[in-house]
Amino acid sequence: MRNRRRTALAVLAAAAATTLAGCGAGAEPPVRLAASGVDGLGLEQVRVGLAFDQGGRGDKSFNDAAAAGLDRAKKELEVDGREVTLSEETEEERAARLRELAEEGRNPVIAVGFLYAGAVRTVAAEFPGTTFAIVDDDSFSAPNVVSLVFAEEQGSYLTGAAAALKSRSGRVGFIGGVRIPLLQKFEAGFTAGATRARPGVKVSVDYLSAPPDFSGFGVPDKAEKIAQRMFAEGVDVVYTAAGGSGAGTLKAVAARKGTWAVGVDSDQYQTAEPGVRAAILTSMVKRVDNAVFQEIQAFIKGDRAGGVKRFDLKTDGVGYSVSNDKAIAPVRKKVDGLRRLILDGTVTVPTKP
């Protein structure tokens, strides 16, 4: 034990010297290590656990945004990251995956999506020494649980404005994954932005499922049919907030000339297939990547307390993408004007339809 203490102290001394040298050069040193627990001495690599929502990595939406945050932390903070994906959509499975990560010493453990709320509440109580973070839920509080929530209504307001201004028919559509308050924030913001930018615009709304059925995040075929119906009714721009189901809307847009899609969570123009990319007007960018990265960074720096962290326009937590410059350029000036009104408090975006 004495030798272990001496080794640990030597590591700490070396780390301190490196830190001081970095600060003396005017640069902030990389933060990537945490106390190991060997008599309170020594340093070890932080081992992060990330539990995906429905669809897992590769959904080109919500989960991929979270994955990007972990990837950045692995690269910049040199953490060790492990991901788990659900094998079935049950409360027991969610709790089992979180418990698995906590039991192997992952800390922090980050749950992606509000459907993990019950599982996080249960497992966090079993592992009080582990910090848990949950994306998109602040329905409960615990000393070791951090809620990462977003002002989705603000980003959706901007995409609603862009959609209404771009529409030739004066009709736009919204497709939500599940009819719940969280997704209704997207609807409320989108509708408010559309009607503010273009009074008289008509907004068609539909959802893929309603509680207790949460399948709406994984039924692209159903989203495709709803989008096709909306197009037949005169809608020419559709915003889909439904995770992996959004692929169905993109398929419908690709098949119908003169229509536009609005993506969600990540900049879907960057990941879409070439055949549909040009028809993605914009995306409501929800910086889940920033939230995940910043939570890992905060943990490393010693912030282990529970609480709520909210990401909005002011913190670059939400916004709208402009990757498809040719498409968005004609309406960008007006949309940016509305963005400034939100930032200065002139406009308060509704959170309920």
UniProtKB/TrEMBL annotation:
Domain annotation ABC transporter substrate-binding protein PnrA-like: ranges: 51-349
Domain of life according to the entry: Bacteria
Locations listed in the record: Cell membrane
Signal peptide: 1-21
UniProt keyword Cell inner membrane present: no
One Pfam family cited in the UniProt record for this chain: Bmp
Keyword DNA repair: no
InterPro entries per the UniProt record, alphabetical: BMP_lipoprotein, PnrA-like, TAT_signal
Entry keyword set: Cell membrane, Lipoprotein, Membrane, Signal
GO cellular component terms, semicolon-separated: plasma membrane
Protein name: Basic membrane protein A
Source species: Planomonospora venezuelensis
Lineage: Bacteria, Bacillati, Actinomycetota, Actinomycetes, Streptosporangiales
